[in-house]
Amino acid sequence: MQSTTLVDEFEHYSTWREAVYVRVEALRDWLDAQELSDAESEMRLNQLLGRLQEDKLNVAFVAEFSRGKSELINAIFFSDYRQRVLPSSAGRTTMCPTELFFDPLHRPSLRLLPIDTKTREGSIVDFKRDADAWTEFPLNLDSAEEMSATLMRLADTLDVDAATAEAFGLINPDDEETARSLERDGSIAIPRWRHALINFPHPLLKQGLVILDTPGLNAIGTEPELTLNMLPNAHAVLFLLAADTGVTRSDIEIWRQYIAPVQGTSRARLVVLNKIDGLWDELKTEAQIDAEIAKQVASSAVLLGLPPSQVYPVSAQKALVAKIRNDGALLEKSRLPGLEAALTQELIPCKQALVSESSQAAVEDVVIKTTELLETRLATIQDQVDELQGLRGKNRDVIQHMMVKANEDKQQFERGLEQFNALRNVFATQVEALRQRLGMEALRNEVRHTRQAMEKSHFSVGLREAMSHFFRQVDGNLDASAETIKEIRAMMTAMYQKFSDEHGLAAVNPPDHSLHKYRKEMARLERIFDDRFNTVFKMLTVGQSQLTARFFETLASKVVQVFELANSETESWLKALIAPMETQVREHKLQLKRRLESVSRIHAATETLDERIAELEASIGTVSDQLDNLARINLRIADALADELNKPALARTA
Ligand SMILES: Nc1nc2c(ncn2[C@@H]2O[C@H](COP(=O)(O)OP(=O)(O)OP(=O)(O)O)[C@@H](O)[C@H]2O)c(=O)[nH]1
Ligand SMILES: [Mg+2]
Q1: Which of 145, 314, 458, 516 is most buried, judging by how many CB atoms fall within 10 Å of its CB?
Q2: Taking the chain, what is the end-to-end CA distance rounded to the nearest angstrom?
Q3: Which ligand is nearest to the CA of 320?
Q4: Are 206 and 54 within 8 A, CB to CB?
Q5: Can you give the pLDDT at residue 650?
């Protein structure tokens, strides 16, 4: 039986949908766990998951009244009940839009929304949320009779006056058709119910199929919900014509107004030419009948602007009878199996394509957005790493160089300091030698020797001799001291030059120092002595020695004065000579110490740099992993989506 195929298709489709659901859910959960989700992505994925879970397949049956919609639904879906389930009779039967579905949370029932809700605010969707608005009749699944009796209520009417009908928006009093519908007493029969919901555990309905049966005769236009919502949302629309009436003006109007505009490429739309049994003229041959049917199909197709292949000729009534009686030949003749096959083939792949499309769109958006985010993140981190690595490379070199240089400088300076200290020893020795010659003690010794020599000599020759000796000695000392001073200065000049060249110390020109003026002073004093001796002492005979002695003492004290001056000046010079060197050495030592400290600090900073780079490199790993995972999850979803589409229903049912 064809409906079994439809069930199989549906089951297959449900499995596919579940696989997609699980993988989309995995994407959502992963994004969440990785903290990569934002409000919009989360909303889109949740909406998609909601749609996948709530997934319904809506098939609407639309036609002018009495074309056999209800009969066709009975024949396709309810023949197992071996009688009419939905009421089907001549004239207007189904009075309100009727949805057949299965909701496991509710008992099987017929729920009816009273027509007077038309004057109340709210759409059908709003009323669906308000259980109290509906009149509910349970369905006894064990009794087909009871069930069809209950469903007869779909045909319930109500006699109201024209004003009430108008208030419900059901008639237009100026309309010709309305005038004809009015009874002699001015009343008019209107539908008792506005909408019907049939909760019924049929295998297909259990899988999510929702069948929408609609009433004919302008009823479509009076319920905006139908035209605005239910028909556009239907995944398949079956539009019925009847062979006995042909294509009427109102058929074309319904087609053009409500069906043709809502058809999309991904939506199934089937035109059914019903009641072909009316053409089964027993006086005609099979071929003649077939030709007649083909002719009607062709003319109907032309009138609706469709290819004839999209028009399916059937006899719903004979098909129902054939199924109930298990009459294979009649079923074949009713041509219903052809329509069912077309429905199966069009309905599910179309639906699957729709779901696949919208799933893919939502997933793609989220994946692309997240990929972009991760790629930007990766690039930013990579930039940082590059920059820090460049810095590190540079720093490494610089620091290496600085360390080497600082150490070299330190070592060199230490060698310099050794030299400096050695020099200080030499300096000290020389100063000592200088002091011995120039020092006051040396002078006093000379004075004492001279005084003794003079006391021993009673002749002027001897006196003169002693004094000359004194002057020679003193001058010799001054001369030797001047030499030492020259040596010291040369040594210090060389030292300053060396420190300036080797350690970058400021070039200092050591002050000059000369004993020349003291030697000149001594020469002057000697001249004075010579003059005196030649003029005065030469002539003295008595007390000459005392006089000379006194003169010498005066002279000696004068010489002491000169020496004292020379000494203090020399000491000052010595200080001035060594002080700048000591200051500079101290300063240089301090600078070296600071340099080493700062190099150490930079070195420490390089270590934190390494840590930071390591951190960033770890983040690169994380982000790369995230990108890989995202691609993998996306691939899994794509696999799930594509898998079934590559194996269309046709291939499996054929
Ligand atoms: N001869 C014949 N009669 C049919 C066929 N299909 C339906 N009918 C009859 O046509 C009449 C109308 O059928 P319904 O199923 O009530 O038609 P409908 O389209 O649902 O009409 P409304 O509910 O009024 O909109 C009923 O008496 C059916 O028995 C068919 O294939 N052949
Ligand atoms: Mg009907």
Answers
A1: 314
A2: 14
A3: 1
A4: no
A5: 43
pLDDT, residue 589, reads 82
CA distance 513 to 269: 123
- Tokens standing for 534? 């030649």
| Contact residues for 574 (Cβ-Cβ < 8 A; gap 6+) | 431, 488
By alpha-carbon position, which residue is closest to atom 2 of ligand 1?
Answer: 275
| φ and ψ at residue 171, rounded to 5 degrees | -135, 160
- Tell me how far apart the alpha carbons of residues 544 and 538 are, in angstroms, rounded to a whole number: 9
- Dihedral (C-alpha) 333, 336, 337, 341: value to the nearest 10 degrees? 150
Instruction: Return the residue whose CA atom lies nearest to atom 1 of ligand 1.
Output: 275
Q: Is the dihedral of CA 628, 631, 637, 643 positive or negative?
A: negative
The structure tokens listed for 361 are 């769109």
Say yes or no: CB of residue 275 within 6 Å of ligand 1: yes
Query: For residue 550, what pLDDT is reported?
Result: 73
Beta-carbon-side half-sphere exposure of residue 512 (alpha carbons within 13 Å): 3
Look-up of token digits 């030797």: 480
Q: Which position has the token pair 């000049």?
A: 493
Residue 454, both tokens = 């003079």
Q: Is 103 helix (H, G, I), strand (E, B) or coil?
A: coil
Tokens of 429: 């020795």
Q: How far apart are CA 491 and CA 429, in angstroms?
A: 13
Q: Count Cβ atoms within 10 A of the Cβ of residue 265 and give its class: 0-12 exposed, 13-18 middle, 19 or more buried.
A: exposed
Roughly what angle, to the nearest 10 degrees, separates helices 336-438 and 69-77?
70
Q: Pairing mode, if any, of strands 236-242 and 209-213?
A: unpaired
The rounded distance, in Å, linking the Cα atoms of 577 and 579 is: 6
Name every residue whose Cβ is closer than 8 Å to that of residue 275 and which is 6 or more positions away in sequence: 67, 68, 242, 243, 244, 315, 316, 317
SS3 at position 101: strand
Please, what's the largest Cα pairwise distance for the chain?
202
- pTM across the whole model: 0.59
pLDDT, position 495? 84
- Nearest Cα residue to atom 22 of ligand 1: 65
Neighbours of 569 (CB within 10 A): 15
Tokens of 516: 């020349």
Task: Report the 10 Å Cβ neighbour count for 319.
Answer: 29
**Helices 336-438 & 316-325, crossing angle to 10 degrees?**
100
In angstroms, the CA 461 to CA 534 distance is 11
Closest CA to 202 of 117, 139, 273, 155: 139
pLDDT at position 1 is: 40
Enumerate residue ranges in the chain where pLDDT < 50: 1-4, 265-266, 645-646, 648-654
Neighbours of 295 (CB within 10 A): 11
* pLDDT at residue 187, as a whole number: 81
* 274 CA to centre of ligand 1 in angstroms: 9
Question: Can you tell me the distance from the alpha carbon of 452 to that of 462, in angstroms, rounded to the nearest whole number?
Answer: 12
SS (H, E, C) 546-583: HHHHHHHHHHHHHHHHHHHHHHHHHHHHHHHHHHHHHH
Is the CB of residue 67 below 6 angstroms from any atom belonging to ligand 1? Answer: yes
Residue 153's nearest CA partner among 124, 110, 103 is: 110
The Cα 278–Cα 283 span in angstroms is 13
Residue 272 CA to ligand 2 centre (angstroms) = 15
The answer to whether the CB of 98 falls within 8 A of the CB of 86 is yes
Region of 322 please: left (phi>0), alpha (psi -120 to 50) or beta: alpha
Closest CA to 353 of 20, 11, 31, 5: 20
